[in-house]
Known about the structure:
There is one protein chain. Helix 3 (77-88) runs parallel beside helix 8 (280-293) and helix 9 runs parallel beside helix 11. By secondary structure, the chain is α/β, with parallel strands linked by helices. It is built from 11 helices and 17 strands. A 7-stranded mixed beta sheet has the order 4-12-11-10-7-5-6, sandwiched between helices. The chain has a 4-stranded mixed beta sheet with strand order 1-2-3-15. It has a 4-stranded antiparallel beta sheet with strand order 13-14-17-16, covered by helices on one side.
Amino acid sequence: MNKKESLxxxxxxxxxxxxxxxxGSGSILWDQNNNEYLDFVQGWAVNCLGHAPEIISQVLEQQxxxxxxxxxxxxxxxxxxxxxxxxxxxxxxxxxxxxxGAEANEGAIKLARKWGEVNKDGAYEIITFKDAFHGxxxxxxxxxxxxxxxxxxxxxVQGFPKALLNDIDSVKALINDRTVAVxxxxxxGEAGVRITEDIFLQELRQLTKENGLLLIVxxxxxxxxxxxxxxxxxxxxxxxxxxxxxxxxxxxxPLSALAATETTSCFEYGDQGGTFNGNPLMTAVGxxxxxxxxxxxxxxxxxTNGKYLTTCLEEFSSAHDLGxxxxxxxLVALDLGSNRGPELVEKALQAGLLLNAPRPDILRFMPAxxxxxxxxxxxxxxxxKIIEE
Length: 389
Ligand SMILES: *Cc1c(COP(=O)(O)O)cnc(C)c1O
């Protein structure tokens, strides 16, 4: 291979198949040889409207002709519009835009520490959870409870004691004078779609209020309609103090957000920033995505499709003696009951289906929110074919 064309010039951070994706539309991707793939990964739960939706290319074209980046030291119209779309549809009052989920979480951690400095005598510890995933910067890896992160890049950032999900006593046991917040995902996606019980979120809200602590929800995977409600914490009907968004907010472009209630939003000049943060090109796309998701019946469609996907997977599971199907909306996992995940993902790829195994015994399904029934049927029929081999 010509040196200039060598795939080896891309850092190998994960094993990748050696074809190259060149094109996508809806739930379909094509590689350079025009092979077709049915995509139930969608950029890791990112492309909520599927690949290359018309609305996003229109907005990108229009906005790119108007204004790309005036710098975050100036206001721009799409950022203001997106902030008000989020504020009007949530219990939060102020938004800081960022470029990745980890960066939004890093901002949430900084905001909580700032709040602790101002209001709680310098308290800085944030209780997070075993198996949680919050990103890949040093602080967000430290906040994560992913076992594989434990030994990496020591020394980690201090101050993230780990509790057990859905175990309120394990949280209580970690609270002390240094505690400032509790941070968690409404559904632990990377841990294999483990649902945070509504009652646990309600207990946490109560507990954090009683102890003068902040409650931070990482909605990077669950927010923006993935679960069939606009925000994952909507099922528990609580109002957290801080929320982070990412992945689907940009529908495929890099965009994330940190949302805070008025009393929590305490950054002072110089505390937070970033060159590309809130740039109009990305926030204009965010507006189009949220406006689409907020259209009447869109979220009902996610719920209906989620139920259909779940039912199909349950039938598949019982026909093949597999385990539990769990999730909410279109974030669904099938427990395989054995470590066949990586092998099935590989076979699926060869059969033209993109799937993900966040753990060796779990298959995760995170299609576009506007996936069609026919595509769900096709996905299951490919699964049928490969499991019989
Ligand atoms: C994907 C994800 C992140 C990290 O987002 P990046 O954009 O990859 O930095 C953080 N938290 C959760 C829950 C996620 O699913």
